[in-house]
């Protein structure tokens, strides 16, 4: 490897550290891989030895061919061994990964950061590292401008002295075309399926030249939005909603402060009406939420309960009353919202409070899928309370304690999205083997309308294309005064730029209509998005119509029609 270089400067408040140029020669140039193919490989478990570097290290190349995994160690409380890279390109998608191990501390939150051209450092990945095993970092970044020199370094969040060892470093570039190509390939494999229509007469002879038409009537993949009481009685809004979405979530109407504003005063009339609306249009609905650990979102009368016994009686009445009333109605329940950031109930009822909530909810409505729901897991890696490993650790802790927890909820309140980081976090969460839902997607209102729309399209395309994602919800409940952060339309239901993006993607992700004639084998084949279809076949002035579904599967779906 090249000679280690002493950092010419140190960030304010940090010690000067050793930057290691991990390449034979003077430069690391961002070269495009031959096949341009992304790998979903990730690890959320700690291992005795690091796995080999992804993409053979990508553009991080160690000089010692006998040591391809490239162990590098330093002792520092702040910085660590660093990768110096040159000539990174604007708009290129960079995926970063490595393995980390500690000495001098049993565990610590380690952040991988990128400092381009001596400008401010940004987080590109995190890991809960340990001293007894190797932990995997996976992240990524996109630059706004080309950079001649950039440093990827590792930062200990609490700055306590420790030895950090890094192995199997990898930095792999992808062009935007390669990234989009991979999204489309995953959509083809996971969101679509090939079907062949076989047409025959009553004697089994092939019918050649029959006219075949298929039209999708329902989508398999749930894409929806939050709704509020403003949709009740507003037929134009209702029609606009059901023309687009097959899933819904109530913005505030099921939260405890809405259903029981004072002790014993139960108000379910509004959520009952909203539930009747979605039920009448065959729209699946998520339950949000049973409890919310945020003290500011807790009813005042609940906060005033000073006795743990009184609080326990209140929460038991809440969960039993809510779940009994709506048993079987909601496909999902967010059981204890944002428990990584807040701890109102666990602080007062003990650390097992969340496990008890999940247990009671499971008993009350065993068919509902119970979720964790959290923000800043997927949106950023700068929040130390909700890193991907912190989320996974809490989920494992709850399940180990007996909680029936079967869903990963990611809110998705984005500022400027980091799409390679977003994909890397999804890769790590996918190793848990549970369905992943985006539950509250929006883009910050600090951006103008066109920028919001551009960022929303990036997020939605990445979410829809990832094989571990099972559904997407937008946090765009419409009010006369606007929306939480992002609306799709104005109050008159005229599309905003974000609404144009959603409409365009919804049309792109459905089979509007396909058709043609049966070939010499009496067959017609097409590739369609998963969901329900109407099939119409016409031959010699005779027409037959039937329905079929395209469900997930790798094999061609065969449908036989007799004329």
Task: Tell me what the structure shows.
With 563 residues, the protein is of the alpha/beta class. It is 24% helix and 31% strand. The chain has twelve helices and 26 strands. The chain has an eight-stranded parallel barrel with strand order 13-14-15-16-17-18-20-21, surrounded by five helices. It comes from Panicum virgatum (Blackwell switchgrass). InterPro entries: GH (IPR017853), GH10 (IPR044846), GH10_AS (IPR031158), GH10_dom (IPR001000). This is GH10 domain-containing protein.
Give the radius of gyration. 27 Å
- CA distance, first residue to last residue: 72 Å
Q: Give a count of the beta strands, DSSP E runs of length 2 or more.
A: 26
Largest sheet data: 8 strands, parallel, barrel
Number of helices: 12
Strand neighbour order, sheet with most strands: 13-14-15-16-17-18-20-21
Mean pLDDT: 90
Q: What share of the residues does DSSP label as strand, in percent?
A: 25-35%
Structural class by SSE content: alpha/beta
Percent range of helical residues: 10-25%
Low-confidence sequence ranges: 1-34, 62-79
Q: Which features would summarize this protein structure in a list?
A:
563 residues; alpha/beta; eight-stranded parallel β-barrel; four-stranded antiparallel β-sheet; 12 helices; 26 strands; globular
Summed up:
The chain contains twelve helices and 26 strands. It has 563 residues and is of the alpha/beta class. An eight-stranded parallel barrel has the order 13-14-15-16-17-18-20-21, surrounded by five helices.
Secondary structure: elements and pairs:
Blueprint: E1 5-6, E2 18-19, E3 72-75, E4 83-88, E5 93-103, E6 107-116, E7 122-130, E8 135-141, E9 147-156, E10 163-174, H1 176-190, E11 192-200, E12 211-219, E13 223-227, H2 235-242, E14 247-250, H3 256-259, H4 269-280, E15 284-292, H5 300-303, H6 308-325, E16 332-337, H7 344-349, H8 353-364, E17 369-374, H9 388-400, E18 407-410, E19 413-414, H10 419-430, E20 436-443, H11 449-465, E21 469-474, H12 497-508, E22 514-517, E23 523-529, E24 531-539, E25 542-550, E26 557-562
Parallel strand pairs: 11-26, 13-14, 13-21, 14-15, 15-16, 16-17, 17-18, 18-20, 19-20, 20-21
Antiparallel strand pairs: 1-2, 3-10, 4-9, 5-8, 5-10, 6-7, 6-9, 11-23, 12-22, 12-24, 24-25
């Amino acid at each position: 490897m090249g000679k280690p270089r002493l950092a010419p400067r140190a960030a304010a408040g940090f010690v000067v550290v050793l930057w290691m140029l991990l390449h034979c020669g003077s430069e690391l140039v961002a070269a495009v891989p031959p096949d341009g193919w992304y790998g979903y490989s990730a690890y959320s478990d700690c291992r005795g030895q690091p796995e080999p570097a992804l993409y053979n290290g990508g553009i991080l190349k160690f000089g010692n061919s006998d040591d391809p995994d490239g162990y590098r160690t330093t002792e520092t409380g702040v910085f660590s061994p660093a990768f110096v890279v040159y000539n990174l390109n604007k708009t290129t998608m960079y995926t970063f990964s490595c393995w980390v191990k500690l000495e001098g501390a049993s565990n610590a939150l380690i952040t991988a950061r990128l400092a381009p051209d001596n400008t401010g450092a940004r987080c590109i990945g995190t890991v809960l590292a340990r001293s007894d095993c190797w932990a995997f970092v996976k992240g990524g970044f996109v630059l706004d401008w080309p950079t001649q020199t950039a440093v990827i370094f590792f930062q200990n969040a609490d700055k306590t002295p420790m030895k950090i060892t890094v192995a199997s470093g990898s930095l792999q570039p992808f062009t935007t075309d390669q990234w989009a190509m991979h999204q489309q390939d995953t959509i083809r494999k996971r969101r679509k399926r090939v079907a062949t229509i076989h047409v025959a007469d009553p004697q089994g002879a092939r019918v050649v030249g029959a006219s075949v038409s298929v039209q999708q009537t329902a989508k398999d993949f749930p894409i929806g939005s939050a709704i509020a009481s403003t949709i009740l009685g507003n037929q134009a809004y209702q029609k606009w909603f059901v023309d687009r979405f097959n899933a819904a979530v109530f913005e505030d109407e099921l939260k405890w402060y809405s259903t029981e504003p004072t002790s014993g005063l139960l108000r379910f009339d509004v959520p009952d009406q909203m539930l009747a609306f979605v039920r009448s249009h065959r729209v699946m609905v998520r339950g949000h939420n049973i409890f919310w650990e945020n003290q500011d979102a807790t009813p005042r009368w609940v906060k005033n309960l000073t006795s743990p016994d009184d609080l326990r009686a209140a929460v038991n009445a809440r969960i039993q009353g809510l779940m009994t009333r709506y048993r079987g109605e909601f496909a999902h329940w967010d059981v204890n919202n944002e428990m990584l950031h807040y701890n109102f109930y666990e602080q007062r009822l003990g650390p097992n409070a969340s496990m008890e909530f999940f247990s009671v909810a499971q008993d009350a409505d065993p068919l509902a899928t119970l979720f964790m729901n959290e923000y800043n897991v997927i949106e950023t890696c700068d929040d130390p309370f909700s890193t991907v490993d912190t989320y996974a650790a809490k989920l494992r802790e709850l399940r180990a304690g007996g909680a029936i927890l079967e869903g990963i909820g990611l809110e998705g309140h984005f500022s400027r999205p980091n799409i390679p980081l977003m994909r890397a976090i999804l890769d790590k969460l996918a190793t848990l083997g549970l369905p992943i839902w985006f539950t509250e997607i929006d883009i910050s209102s600090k951006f103008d309308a066109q920028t919001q729309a551009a960022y929303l399209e990036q997020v939605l395309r990445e979410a829809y294309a990832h094989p571990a994602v099972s559904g997407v919800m937008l946090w765009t409940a419409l009010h006369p005064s606007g929306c939480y952060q992002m609306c799709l339309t104005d109050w008159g239901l005229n599309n905003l730029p974000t609404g144009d993006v959603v409409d365009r993607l919804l049309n792109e992700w459905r089979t509007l209509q396909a058709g043609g004639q049966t070939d010499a084998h009496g067959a017609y084949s097409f590739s369609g998005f998963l969901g329900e279809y109407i099939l119409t076949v016409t031959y010699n002035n005779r027409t037959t119509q039937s329905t079929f579904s395209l469900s997930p599967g790798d094999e061609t779906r065969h449908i036989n029609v007799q004329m």
